[in-house]
Design a protein that fits this description.
It contains 7 helices and no strands. With 203 residues, the chain is mostly helical. The protein has a domain at 136-203. The chain is globular and about 55 Å long. The protein has helices spanning 13-33, 38-44, 46-64, 71-97, 106-132, 136-165, 176-196. Helices cover 75% and strands 0% of the residues. The longest helix has 30 residues, at 136-165.
Length: 203
């Protein structure tokens, strides 16, 4: 006998909110605590990843409850999990193997570039999701969400860059701007919810 009981949807956005809040909290804590060991610092930054994993698991549950219609979302979330594992692993490897003042070699460059390539993998996963998504409305929501994130992150990078060039603010490493972009995805999802009553396929 087939179980026709509808699966209860699990919350996703609150866990994303907890992730972004913890990122900000960890950044402030590391800045104020004076911890300069990169291995410890990166270890503490694993806390936001735990919230991200929970959000991903809930989203996969929600996508799975929709059967074949939810297949693109499941594929997307699987790619995101794989990329996340690659990112965290490569970041720890680079932190452990490369010390400040070490000479630049082909090997050190190869090790240092992997976390950046893992971040690029997130964008690939999002792009593949848009391609595989057959529902035009849901695809529009994802495109709209991504455009909002892009506008927010590039605007923030431009404003901060000019402030920095004129000596008004401290230097910010470039890898923070993709983080702003992902934060922008959350903003885009909220705007979609307010405008259309739904955040899309993965929330």
């Amino acid at each position: 006998m087939t179980d026709t009981t509808p699966k209860v949807r699990k919350p996703v956005i609150p866990w994303f909110g907890a992730m972004f809040a913890s990122i900000i909290g960890m950044a402030i804590f590391l800045d104020q605590s004076g911890i300069d060991d990169p291995l410890i610092a990166n270890g503490l930054m694993l806390i936001p990843i735990l919230f991200l994993v929970k959000a991903g698991m809930n989203a996969m549950h929600n996508a799975g409850s929709r059967g074949a219609v939810g297949s693109p979302a499941r594929n997307y979330l699987k790619r995101m999990v794989i990329v996340s594992v690659g990112y965290v692993g490569s970041l720890f490897a680079a932190t452990a193997l490369i010390d400040d003042g070490d000479p630049i070699t082909v090997l050190s460059v190869m090790i240092a570039i992997v976390p950046g390539l893992a971040v690029a993998g997130y964008f690939y996963a999002i792009g593949r999701f848009m391609i595989e998504q057959q529902d035009e409305f849901l695809r529009m929501l994802m495109v709209r969400q991504s455009l909002i994130a892009t506008g927010l992150s590039l605007s923030a990078a431009s404003v901060w860059g000019f402030l920095e060039s004129f000596g008004q603010v401290p230097h910010v490493d470039a890898y923070w701007w993709p983080i702003v972009w992902f934060f922008g995805l959350g903003i885009g999802a909220l705007i979609n919810k307010l405008a259309y009553g739904t955040t899309g396929d993965c929330a």
